[in-house]
């Protein structure tokens, strides 16, 4: 099947799309256009791969085919972590997911894990002669919130012992926790959560492998109310203590969803009512000019390669962040933060303010 070659900086329509689908992208790239009221106008045609017929997005709330969902093996049905074994399915061992239990370190990462009932904690350690954490976290009374959850006691250990447990140069702040990976979340669950909301934002990462970047993106996602961060199973940062440290606790509150096929996942999100905007320097409109609203997915690529061709083809539009200084490109985590801020700024209902912390 022949693929249409997309010219840089131009969003042209595929030959197989109908008039509605072509108008849809033309509407996006107009700086004065708005996507608000899309469904009221009856424009329900979604993007499709080259050579295939366009398919309609549901005009009503998204519904998951329960029989189809039940036929897929559930991660929760897999054997849970027992005596140091990885509870994730074996087909994920070569992917971006964690290989087994790992160490969290730093106040924000450890305290957020203690407060997360979904997180299974195996061991808690702190430097001898120092209090592990202030308040109720130190005495383990958070377990009272969930009678079925048992937290291990804090163990005092010497600094050399603690540093041998953690990655070289880890900023541990005197505390660490050995934990099992978080239970997996399916993309269908994210679509279910989004169905009852008018304004939804999520981030889609195309082969972003640096754990510091993914952690920083999770932190921005938590600050600006994003529903989830989606990334690929392979060629993506695994769930590690380094990622959790960079996320500063956000790993425990923002779902990190891994998918085997990013293009297929993007089409699934479109069927759930999402508009997907890829951040690229050659975008014909800046993000503010696109006037995105409703259910929006921001698609970001790795530094250097950027978005892959197939990922670009499955975006509804390409947008850019306006820059005018001597350096015209941003780190992917910085770009995610700026883009999320712009989406929140354009939504009057968003009134909460983020606080700047100095832990790092």
Care to describe what's here?
With 360 residues, this protein is an alpha/beta fold. The chain folds into 2 domains: 19-48 and 184-345, SPOUT methyltransferase, trefoil knot domain (Alpha/beta knot, 3-Layer(aba) Sandwich), CATH 3.40.1280.10; 101-179, 2-Layer Sandwich (60s Ribosomal Protein L30, Chain: A). 28% of the residues lie in helices and 15% in strands. The protein has helices at residues 19-29, 66-71, 107-115, 136-139, 159-165, 187-195, 211-223, 241-247, 262-271, 287-290, 309-313, 332-345; strands at 102-105, 121-127, 154-157, 175-179, 200-206, 229-232, 256-259, 275-279, 285-286, 295-301, 317-320. Helix 4 links the parallel strand 2 and strand 3. The protein starts with 18 loop residues before the first helix and ends in a 15-residue tail after the last helix. The relative contact order is 0.15.
């Amino acid at each position: 099947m022949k693929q249409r070659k997309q010219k840089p900086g131009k969003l042209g329509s595929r030959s197989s799309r109908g008039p509605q689908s072509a108008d849809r992208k033309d509407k996006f790239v107009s700086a004065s256009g708005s996507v608000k009221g899309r469904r009221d106008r009856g424009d329900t045609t979604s993007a499709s791969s080259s050579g295939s017929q366009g398919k309609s997005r549901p005009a009503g709330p998204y519904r998951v085919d329960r029989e189809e969902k039940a036929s897929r093996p559930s991660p929760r049905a897999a054997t849970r972590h027992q005596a140091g074994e990885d509870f994730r399915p074996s087909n994920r061992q070569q992917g971006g997911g964690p290989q087994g239990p790992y160490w969290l370190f730093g106040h924000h990462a450890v305290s957020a894990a203690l407060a997360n009932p979904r997180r299974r904690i195996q061991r808690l350690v702190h430097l001898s002669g120092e209090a592990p954490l202030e308040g109720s976290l130190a005495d383990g009374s958070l377990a009272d919130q969930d009678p079925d959850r048992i937290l291990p006691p804090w163990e005092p250990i010497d600094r050399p012992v603690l540093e041998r447990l953690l990655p070289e140069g880890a900023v541990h702040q005197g505390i660490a926790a050995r934990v099992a990976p978080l239970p997996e979340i399916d993309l269908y669950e994210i679509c279910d959560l989004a169905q009852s909301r008018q304004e939804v934002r999520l981030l889609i990462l195309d082969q972003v492998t640096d754990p510091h970047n993914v952690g920083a993106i999770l932190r921005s996602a938590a600050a600006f109310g994003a529903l989830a961060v989606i990334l690929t199973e392979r060629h993506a940062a695994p769930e590690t203590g380094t990622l959790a440290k960079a996320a500063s606790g956000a790993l425990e509150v923002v779902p990190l969803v891994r998918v085997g096929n990013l293009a297929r996942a993007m089409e699934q999100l479109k069927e759930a009512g999402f508009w997907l905007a890829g951040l690229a320097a050659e975008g014909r409109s800046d993000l503010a000019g696109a006037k995105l609203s409703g259910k929006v997915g921001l698609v970001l690529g790795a530094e250097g390669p950027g978005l892959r061709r197939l990922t670009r083809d499955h975006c509804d539009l390409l947008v850019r962040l306006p820059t005018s200084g001597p350096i015209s490109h941003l780190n992917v985590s910085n770009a995610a933060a700026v883009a999320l801020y712009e989406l929140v700024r354009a939504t009057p209902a968003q009134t909460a303010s983020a606080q700047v912390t100095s832990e790092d």
